[in-house]
Write a structure and sequence with these properties.
28 helices; disordered N terminus; seven-stranded mixed sheet; 37% helix
Length: 896
């Protein structure tokens, strides 16, 4: 355990009431404030803290916290507006894995979450130092601190010793703890967004007197949208703008606004933010773009110093259509239609398109936020707001970057259980990723990594704004299907064929109708109809006949959804509108989804109103099929219980950390592990390798080969030197070596060809037959560890048959990972052979996931090939790269 490393840089986080505090290590200069923290406590609180009242208690406590760093001691303080309001400490006393913990909160600030937030950060710091448990003593009458410990979400044991209670708190991070942290974070987050999304007063700073300015446009929208509360303008050159009172500065306003809209030139943004903070403004909406790095730092610093939440900069604005508020602080062309869809975007242009599309469909918007460069309020914040606002039932996101993907994943996974969460998967190509980076000043994310995030979190990812709206229309208006079996009904054969192709390409199934269903449907359709799948009802079908046909099919247990492809004809008495009306009858009574395809439809998607509900209508069969396929995947995801991370036996985390630390001590810049260190690390996680031996001389190689020979006497020799990555490419492998002479000749060959490089060889028995697979992990700087799996061997990079999931893997994740690649049927015996040992394969991936989750220093791991056979799974070749990296707690509550 180190004695000079701080427990972490200063971070900002939210208290239970939504106010912002800074959590940072104690510095010597804090002595005066810490002593004052204790001196200002009431005698009763001093007694509860120190078990007695002494005139020297405050000074001694401050001395201890500000003393020179020593092994096993950490002290964190909470600071608000430069004032210390809390302190938390732990001290191992040299024990290493168990530490005494204490906490103090300023007088008058109890029940605000200060102590709980400090303890969460102290727990994270302690885990990073290898501490596994806290002990804390309290008087039995100190109910507040005992309740704090009990409500943490960590396993806590109590032992009563007279008037005192000794609490032992296990620091193991599990789902119970993370859920408790999430719930506290959600409540604080929602409270912090109140002044932004439900402001009682708004001030527009930078509204001009002449038309054309963004600030003036937002002021106009606030007035024209019917904002029900007070609004002011700030402009030193005017006393009134658009009939709104204008004042020369924020400090001159008659009332401090909750929300300040900042629409001044880039150079003036940070000074305005500073003025707002000093005046007590609680939220900023910064629409100005073009800020340089120094201006951004000053803006964010002002927000953190004064506890203001911020949307932007470089954004379109925010809206809340609640009839009690009617806030439209945007400069979009029109006002959003009130409704139930929450929308958060980074691109203002995409935001306008979604607002227009949702209004046209009649879905409307509950809350809209254009996040812009997203230096504070994020998609994660908005998801938590929608989860709690009692108005939103559909969440739409367009995010070009992620600040904390693992926290987003947990939030999205929880919210997606309550409502559909849809996103546009932006930046899928290299060109798109470059555009995203230049547009948002954020690093690009990998397509595979982002896809894993969305899949695991239950987020419906679409490829365009149009597809997002098409899918939203179906999820908003229709029940979810029980499966992917689709029946197609049409009045024109060609339209039915197009719909059938679209469904098949979307991965949907088109089951043949049962003989009874054929007879029943033929009985209600006109002569000349053909009943298959698609059902060709013929151009002569009437409204009643079509309605009866669809109802019969909907009642069939072998069908999960119905697509009706209609073409207007002049053959029957029924018009095109009549036929559409047949489909839109009593949609509220239907328990299966139905959608219409109208090839002549002008708009890509519409919601047809009828009978107390709506039915989506699409101009293209592929749009309808895509939307329905998304609904099927959502239903599948919801039908599965949330996965759990299985417990693993034989894992030696402490020894693994020791292996990593020893390697990085010898190699400060990191690197690829040598075979022996690699094997030691894999052994800590019970990852089984093929038997092997290390040899540095020809004689050693001959002896090792003799020990390793299997029944057929054949061995493999692999050359090794630091930096060697692809042995096959370098021709540093000899296969099928028989007898001592061949082994010696192979060693001499490698020694000759790689003179000056070769440091030794690895010998292994020649592997039996099996399926060659690949398993690996890469530590993404933003997303964390990503586990990959797929076809292995020399063709792995050429065929690129890989799937990926973010660690830690749950039991469901590992099953999905194995079944996702195209080669998956080989593992289940599809070629007539016995299935491979799937349980052992799952265990290997779970152990790889655990290793990557435990060790942030693990930059890459590459197991290729992994030989899978009915009798077991063996890693034949493994490479691991370590880099110096401190642990990062992705679930720790903090603002960006």
């Amino acid at each position: 355990m180190t004695d000079d490393k701080p427990s972490g840089p200063p971070v900002h986080a939210l208290l239970a009431d939504g106010t912002t505090v800074c959590i940072r290590p104690v510095a010597p200069g804090d002595h005066g404030q810490l002593q004052g923290l204790y001196e200002e406590m009431s005698p009763e609180n001093l007694r509860l803290r120190f078990f007695g009242v002494s005139r020297r208690s405050a000074e001694m406590a401050a001395d201890r916290a500000c003393a020179a760093p020593h092994p096993g001691y950490r002290a964190l303080l909470a600071e608000r507006s430069g004032q210390v309001i809390g302190l938390a400490e732990f001290d191992t006393g040299g024990s290493g894995t168990e530490a005494d913990m204490s906490i103090a909160v300023a007088e008058g600030l109890h029940h605000r979450g200060v102590g709980t937030l400090l303890v969460e950060h102290l727990v994270s710091a302690a885990r990073a130092e290898g501490v596994t448990a806290f002990t804390a003593d309290a008087l039995s009458e100190n109910r507040e601190v005992l309740r704090l410990f009990a409500d943490l979400g960590l396993r806590t044991a109590r032992r009563f010793e007279g008037p005192e209670v000794r609490c032992t708190i296990e620091l193991t991070q599990n789902d119970t703890y993370l859920t408790a942290v999430e719930e506290r974070g959600r409540a604080a987050d929602v409270a912090s967004l109140e002044p932004l999304l439900r402001p009682r007063t708004v001030a527009v700073i930078g509204a001009g007197r002449t038309p054309g300015s963004v600030g003036r446009a937002i002021l106009h929208h606030l007035k024209a949208g019917g904002y029900t509360r007070r609004v002011f303008a700030v402009n030193p050159a005017a006393t009134s703008i658009l009939g709104v009172p204008s004042h020369p500065s924020v400090s001159a306003l008659p009332r401090t606004p909750d929300l300040a809209v900042v629409a001044v030139p880039a150079a003036g943004v940070a000074p305005v933010a500073e003025e707002c903070g000093k005046a007590g403004v609680r939220a900023l909406l910064v629409v100005t773009g073009g800020l340089d790095a120094d201006q951004v730092r000053a803006l964010v610093s002002a927000c953190r110093t004064y506890g203001m939440r911020m949307v932007g900069p470089n954004c379109l604005g925010v809206s809340n259509t609640d009839s009690r508020l009617r806030l439209d602080a945007t400069f979009a062309a029109g006002h959003p239609r009130p409704g139930t869809a929450g929308v958060a975007v980074q691109s203002g242009g995409v935001g306008i398109a979604l607002l227009d599309g949702l209004s046209r469909l009649g879905i409307g918007v509950s809350t809209f936020a254009s996040l812009g460069d997203k230096y504070d309020v994020s998609g994660n914040d908005m998801l938590q707001w929608w989860e709690s606002d009692h108005r939103t039932d559909l969440a739409l996101l367009h995010l070009e970057s992620f600040g904390n993907p693992r926290a987003f994943s947990r939030t999205a996974r929880r919210v997606a259980r309550r409502m559909p969460v849809l996103t546009v998967d932006a930046g899928r190509t290299d060109a798109g990723r470059r555009a995203a980076a230049s547009h948002t000043a954020a690093a690009a994310t990998r397509t595979m990594t982002r896809g894993a995030l969305f899949t695991q979190a239950g987020v419906t990812a679409t490829r365009s704004v149009g597809e997002l709206l098409e899918t939203a229309a179906l999820l908003h208006s229709q029940p979810l299907p029980a499966g992917g079996r689709v029946a197609i009904v049409t009045n024109a054969g060609g339209a039915g064929v197009l719909a059938a192709d679209a469904c098949a390409e979307a991965g949907l199934m088109l089951p043949a109708p049962t003989p009874r269903l054929v007879d029943d449907v033929l009985a209600v359709l006109p002569e000349g109809a053909a009943v298959g799948n698609p059902v060709d009802a013929s151009a002569a079908v009437t409204e009643e006949q079509l309605a009866d046909c669809v109802d019969l099919i909907m009642r069939n247990s072998g069908v999960d959804a119905v697509l009706v492809a209609l073409v207007p004809t002049a053959v029957a008495a029924a018009t095109g509108d009549d036929l559409v009306r047949a489909i839109t009858r009593a949609p509220a009574r239907r328990t299966k989804p139905v959608a219409v395809i109208r090839l002549e439809q002008a708009l890509p998607v519409e919601l047809l109103q009828a009978g107390g509900g709506t039915v989506p209508s699409y101009a293209e069969p592929h749009a309808a099929a895509r939307a329905l396929a998304h609904a099927v995947r959502r239903a599948d995801w919801l039908a599965r219980p949330a996965g759990t991370v299985p417990a693993l036996d034989g894992v030696e985390t402490t020894r693994a950390h020791a292996v990593v630390e020893a390697y990085l001590d010898a190699h400060p810049d990191g690197g690829w592990l040598d075979p022996r260190t690699c094997a030691a690390l894999l052994g800590c996680y019970g990852i089984r390798q093929s038997p092997w031996a290390w040899a540095e001389t020809e004689d050693d190689a001959a002896l090792a080969a003799d020990r390793l020979r299997g029944a057929d006497g054949r061995v493999v020799m692999k050359g090794y030197w630091p930096g060697l990555l692809h042995k096959t490419v370098e021709h540093a492998v000899h296969l099928d070596l028989r007898g001592e002479s061949q082994v010696r000749a192979a060693f001499r060959d490698l020694e000759t060809r790689f003179a000056g490089l070769l440091t030794g060889v690895v010998l292994q028995p020649l592997a039996d037959r099996g399926t060659e697979l690949f398993a690996g992990v890469v530590q993404d700087e933003v997303f964390g560890p990503l586990v990959l799996f797929g076809l292995g061997g020399t063709a792995t990079e050429v065929l690129a048959d890989h799937a990926a999931r973010l660690a830690p893997l749950t039991d469901h994740d590992v099953h999905d990972l194995i079944t996702a690649p195209r080669c998956a049927p080989l593992l289940f015996g599809a070629d007539g052979t016995r299935p491979v040992d799937l349980e052992e394969l799952e265990r290997l991936l779970l152990r790889l996931s655990r290793m990557a989750s435990d060790l942030p220093q693990l930059a890459e791991a590459d197991f290729n090939p992994v030989l899978a056979a009915p009798g077991g799974v063996t890693v034949l070749d493994a490479r691991v790269r370590l880099v110096p990296r401190r642990p990062h707690d992705p679930y720790l509550r903090r603002l960006r």
